[in-house]
Amino acid sequence: MRKICAIALLLGSFSMPVVAQTAPHGKEDPVVRSQRLLQGAWTLQWMKGGDVAKLYPAKKPLVSINVAYGKISGFNGCNNYFGTIKVEGDKLFFKGPLGSTKMACDQVDEQKFMSLINEVKTFKVADSNSLELSTAQGVALRFTRLPKKSNQQNQPKNK
């Protein structure tokens, strides 16, 4: 019976993706906090070199990040996109190019958004509701967090 409990406990630990870590003084580790805050769904508010309202008149691009499973997905103004990421501190690494659906859309510059998001190197979450994604040239995209209900609907389903 002890062996069964030990095996169940061991197997269960592999299925739990993220556990909040605390520093010795009882506060959450800043890296863990940053990654926890990155988790969720975000809507585009600003983009380097483009007017978001004019480029995406019908629906703004979205990004949904699941740090625990290393997934990124979203909507680029025309098509859905998806990929695999690795987060280390404030660094965001894409494991290969992002994939996307291939619908044809008029009057939407989805490529501008995709070219910027594919170049992202770092992130910063401010006040837990504002996300900045930066390339080597500086801040490229700014997002605001979607409300929890929308946030859950836009989370990647692949685990």
Automatic annotation (TrEMBL):
Keywords on record: Signal
Domain of life of the native organism: Bacteria
The keyword Signal belongs to this UniProt entry's keyword annotation: yes
Any Pfam family hit: META
Domain DUF306: start-end pairs: 35-143
UniProt source species: Rurimicrobium arvi
Residues making up the signal peptide according to the UniProt record: 1-20
Lineage of the organism: Bacteria, Pseudomonadati, Bacteroidota, Chitinophagia, Chitinophagales
Protein name: DUF306 domain-containing protein
